[in-house]
């Protein structure tokens, strides 16, 4: 009984949270700006102001939750597919990007509103993207560790510790490319994803130089 009650409360909470998010998105897309106040916004959607603050500290946090949810939902869906564990880390990142940007297509108007900053280049310090940055970088760290364990990625001294930051800038580049992409069905973005990921992994995977170094180290250790 207690478990059923807790489940019902969680479901109600998720429904209220989604109601706030969707109402906020509709407002900014129609008016091009935030509601005048949390009080006015809550009055419009017929909820108590205290209910709003139960889920969000302000409008900026709603924007951040959009990006975090987009990341978590796509990654969760991919991780629950039968073939996921069989993928190489390069394939995992490619699959995530294609899924993530496919979801963005369905929310393009709102995503463009969230990313607008008055300049031609995407501002990497946008506070809304902090909600995406933290879990994404954690995931990249885990992905890179998996790649090293599988010997798909070379360990390169201090550079290996910077991979999460480098891939974060890769994602920002792809977001900026996507928001400017005018090609049919965003085909150029798909090309950019493939080329950017393949270039990155060509640089960080074990290559001929790494193999030669490993072989030389082996010879030095065994035939001194």
Structure description:
It is a single chain. The chain is an all-alpha fold and 224 residues long. It has 2 domains: 1-56, Arc Repressor Mutant, subunit A (Orthogonal Bundle), CATH 1.10.10; 59-224, Tetracycline Repressor, domain 2 (Orthogonal Bundle). The chain has 10 helices and no strands. The protein has helices at 2-31, 38-45, 49-55, 59-79, 89-105, 108-115, 130-149, 163-180, 187-204, 208-222. α7 (130-149) packs across α8 (163-180) and α8 (163-180) packs antiparallel against α9. The longest helix has 30 residues, at 2-31.
Number of strands: 0
Strand content: under 5%
Name the CATH architecture of the largest domain.
Answer: Orthogonal Bundle
Mean pLDDT: 87
* Main β sheet profile: none
Individual helix count: 10
Please render the helix and strand layout as text.
Blueprint: H1 2-31, H2 38-45, H3 49-55, H4 59-79, H5 89-105, H6 108-115, H7 130-149, H8 163-180, H9 187-204, H10 208-222
Write a short abstract of this structure.
It contains ten helices and no strands.
Keywords:
224 residues; Arc Repressor Mutant, subunit A; 2 domains; 10 helices; Tetracycline Repressor, domain 2; 0% strand; mainly alpha
